[in-house]
Amino acid sequence: MGAVRREPREHRGEIALREVMTLSLSFDHRLVDGEQGSRFLADIGRILRDPGLALTMM
C-alpha cells in the first residue's frame, strides 16, 4: 500500500482533486493466475472505498 495523495483526476466529466492510493500485489503465478489476482485487488479497492461492503461479500 502506498501513501494517500490528492491528485487531479477526471470524475463525472470534470477534473477534480481525488484521494489516490497505490495498491500492489505479489503472488505465485503457479498457484494463482493474473485474472484471479486482479479480481482480488479490485475487491480490496472497493472495500477500502466502502468498508460496509465487507459485510456483504461473505
UniProtKB/TrEMBL annotation:
It comes from the Bacteria. Signal peptide: none annotated. Transmembrane segments: none annotated. It holds the Pfam family 2-oxoacid_dh. InterPro entries: 2-oxoacid_DH_actylTfrase, CAT-like_dom_sf. Residues 1-55 form the 2-oxoacid dehydrogenase acyltransferase catalytic domain. This is 2-oxoacid dehydrogenase acyltransferase catalytic domain-containing protein. It comes from Agromyces marinus.
